[in-house]
Structures are given as C-alpha cells and as structure tokens.
Amino acid sequence: MYLDLALRISAAGMAAQATRLRVVAENLANRDSTGESPGADPYRRRTVTFANTMDRMLGAQTVAVAGIGTQPGDFPTRYEPGHPAADAEGYVKTPNVDSLIEVMDMREAQRSYSANLSVLETTRAMLTRTIEALR
User: Fold this and answer.
1) 90, 38 in Cβ contact below 8 A?
2) Angstrom distance (rounded) from CA 57 to CA 114
3) Structural domains in the chain (count)
4) Alpha carbon distances (Å) from 29 to 9, 22, 24, 95
5) pLDDT tens-digit profile of 37-96?
6) Could you give the 3-state DSSP secondary structure of residue 9?
7) Phi and psi based region of residue 17 (left: phi greater than 0; alpha: psi -120 to 50; beta: remaining)
8) From CA 65, how far away is CA 81, in angstroms rounded?
9) Which of 44, 47, 48 is nearest to 34 (CA)?
C-alpha cells in the first residue's frame, strides 16, 4: 500500500534529522571545551552527511545518515596565559564551533523534521478516513 510507504519514508527523514539535531547539540555543548594540556587540540566540530539510499524492502529511495565526520581547518586561538592549556606564548586553542552556524543548522533540521511530521500526520489521517469508509 502506498500510504504505508509514505509513512516509512517520512519516518526515515525524521530519523535522519534527529541524528542531525543530536550532533548540533554535541557541538553546542562542547563549544567552550579546550585541550587538557598546552598545545593540545580542543573539540573539533562534527558534521552530518546524508545519502540517498534505495530501501529494497520498501522499494523506494529514502534518506539516511551516510556518516558523521569532523570539520577540518585550523582552530581559533585566544590569549589567556593563565589557562592550563595555554602554549608558551599564552594562547589557547578553542573549538572550531560557531554558535550562529549551529543555530542555523538546528533551525534547518527542525524545519525538515516538521515537514516530515506533517507528511506523516496527513498520511495517518488519510489511512484513518479510508478505514472509516470501509466500515
């Protein structure tokens, strides 16, 4: 039945966006984490990559999390000579997490999740009306 297929595709989209929200939460939680020793690298921002996959059981293409990676690049530094992780010059490496980017990712994931939830609710309502019509 095609309505069942729509429910499963929407659920796959919601699961993918839930993973994205979890990674955003991890990034925001570790935004101020620094290394434990002088010159040590701090927390590195994590990113989610999605992939279009063929679900053979459903006979349809769905979205899935292809992987969770890290964002390459240099770490910003701040001058804080009294910090335990400060190097010989007094600079501390800070995470490459930008709160503004994380909030934008969070809003985008929220909108995608809501869109999938709307499809799920509409499909469920159609199934309910179909069952009521058959009684």
Assistant:
1) no
2) 25
3) 1
4) 31, 10, 9, 11
5) 888 899 999 999 999 999 888 788 999 999 999 999 999 999 999 888 999 899 999 999
6) helix
7) alpha
8) 41
9) 44
